[in-house]
Write a structure and sequence with these properties.
The chain has 443 residues and is of the alpha+beta class. The protein has helices at 3-16, 38-56, 72-77, 80-83, 118-123, 158-162, 165-172, 217-234, 280-289, 315-326, 362-373, 387-397, 407-412, 433-441, and strands at 20-22, 34-36, 61-63, 85-90, 97-99, 131-134, 137-140, 150-153, 178-187, 202-212, 242-246, 256-264, 267-278, 295-297, 302-304, 307-314, 327-332, 335-340, 351-355, 379-381, 401-405, 414-419, 425-429. The strands form 7 sheets. Strands 3-9-10-16-13-12-11 form a 7-stranded mixed sheet, sandwiched between helices. It has a 5-stranded mixed sheet with strand order 20-19-21-22-23, with helices on both faces. The protein has a 3-stranded antiparallel sheet with strand order 5-4-6. Bound molecules: glycyl-adenosine-5'-phosphate (GAP).
Length: 443
């Protein structure tokens, strides 16, 4: 299948099954912003929950939820006011604005020239000189809109962690090495939003900053690189669709950096970055705030500004990778079966329950099963249409288990559990169902 077709099919499934909707769709949509529908929000929460559990259920990492709006000096200290820019050019003819360094990938904004590459317009001298455009969204705090009230929507969650370094260290009596983890929204006024959730203007990050002794930076960089790559494998991502690339062009704060990349239908793209940020951020906040952000090692009597190894994952971009990775089309009995093979831990719905027919007390038994399960896991009841169609609908939602109540249930209390990927069914006693599912889903 052509990769564009595959991409379009997945985007269409996302809307049809309630994963992702265009933001403000009834008004024509808002570019670069998306809404998570009933299944999308469950998938997103499950991914964030898996990350949070794996990163914070350890003694050396603490959680944090810092505010999105921060003191404007934070962004001067971090270098974002000065450096978080993209060079841009405007077309004098069609008035469209492009990133100067990706004209090859952009199309001319003039509808009359549909499909024409922007690079051609550039070669014909239609563009202005490149100017730097800051990617931070600006707004004002309080009623007066002047330069003294400017604040920014954070472009990364990391800075909220750095400015709380001492608060967390002291309140939790943490010793280096230790980390601070945070999940939250970030905003970037991207010039070219593209590829669905890949580059949006509002997105979520799952970031962890690990504070270390500078002498150990290489060891911890390697450690986190491996941990984070394996995290995606743990939740079912295909290894042959992942790779690590080393940055040659480094961000203003980094000594070394790698990307964990996923092969999307449109090509390879970063889903997470691991960065050795050195003491850049803590040192700069020390300089700008006058507050010492350093560490005293009681054992060695050493005093230093810690280095930071950062793991920075996109929750929304990761969601798209998990979604695309899970998508399969298979032929079953000469019919096409579309199935999302999510790992049970991140699947939005864990089990669906069907009465085989809508009579003979089967709906009542199925409803009782739902009542029992829903206290523990997200379940779905469906009694409409042929059983095969109900299975197919759940396959498209990525539901790992379907439970059917049939005439044998009424006789001997057994039900069938159908496993999504193998489509095999086993018959078990309904009283054991919750324990069996718990074991399969392992939550
Ligand atoms: N704190 C470091 C930092 O923000 P980054 O490489 O700019 O580093 C980290 O971003 C992750 O955030 C990326 O790997 C990606 O998953 C996600 N991300 C960045 N910009 C994004 C955007 N415009 N839309 C969606 N996700 C984005």
């Amino acid at each position: 299948m052509k990769t564009k077709d595959l991409f379009d099919k997945i985007v269409s499934l996302c809307k049809r099954r309630g994963f992702i909707f265009q933001s403000s769709e009834i008004y024509g949509g808002l570019n670069g912003c998306y809404d998570y529908g009933p299944l999308g929000v469950e998938l997103l929460r499950n991914i964030k929950e898996a990350w949070w559990r794996d990163l914070t259920l350890r003694e050396d990492i603490e959680g944090l939820d810092s505010s999105i709006l921060m003191h404007p000096r934070v962004w001067e200290a971090s270098g974002h006011v000065e450096n978080f820019t993209d060079p841009m050019v405007d077309c004098k003819e069609c008035k469209a604005r492009f990133k100067a360094d990706s004209l090859e990938d952009s199309e001319c904004g003039n509808k009359a020239y549909k499909g024409r590459k922007a690079i051609k317009c550039f070669q014909e001298g239609k563009f202005t000189e490149a100017r730097n455009f800051n990617l931070m969204f600006k707004t004002f705090i309080g009623p007066v809109e002047d330069s003294s009230s400017v604040v920014y929507l954070r472009p990364e969650t990391a800075q909220g962690i750095y400015v709380n370094f001492t608060n967390v260290k002291d309140s939790m009596r943490q010793k280096i090495p230790f980390g601070i983890a945070q999940i939250g929204k970030a905003f970037r006024n991207e010039i070219n939003t593209k590829n669905f959730l890949f580059r949006t203007r509002e997105f979520e990050q799952m970031e962890m900053q690990y504070f270390i002794n500078p002498a150990e930076d290489e060891k911890w960089f390697e450690y986190w690189k491996e941990q984070r790559f394996n995290w995606y494998l743990k939740y079912g991502m295909r290894k042959d669709k992942m790779r690590i690339t080393v940055h040659e062009k480094l961000a203003h704060y980094a000594k070394s950096a790698i990307d964990i990349e996923y092969e999307f239908p449109f090509g390879w793209g970063e889903i997470e970055g691991i960065h050795n940020r050195t003491d850049f951020d803590l040192r700069r906040h020390f300089e700008f705030s006058g507050k010492k952000l350093e560490y005293f090692d009681e054992a060695t009597k050493e005093r230093y500004i810690p280095y930071v190894i950062e793991t920075s994952a996109g929750a929304s971009r990761g969601l798209m990778a998990f979604l695309m990775d899970a998508y399969y089309e298979e032929e079953v009995n000469n019919e096409l079966r579309v199935v999302l093979k999510f790992h049970p831990a991140i699947a939005p719905i864990k089990a669906a329950v069907f009465p085989l027919v809508n009579r003979d007390n089967m709906p009542e038994v199925a409803r009782n099963i739902i009542e029992d399960l829903k206290k523990h896991i997200r379940v779905f009841y469906d009694d409409s249409g042929a059983i095969g169609r109900r299975y197919r609908r759940q396959d498209e939602c990525g539901t790992p288990y379907c439970i059917t109540v049939d005439s044998d249930t009424l006789k001997d209390g057994t039900i069938t559990i159908r496993e999504r990927d193998s489509m095999l069914q086993e018959r078990v006693n309904k009283d054991n169902l919750l324990n069996i599912l718990k074991e399969k889903i392992s939550f």
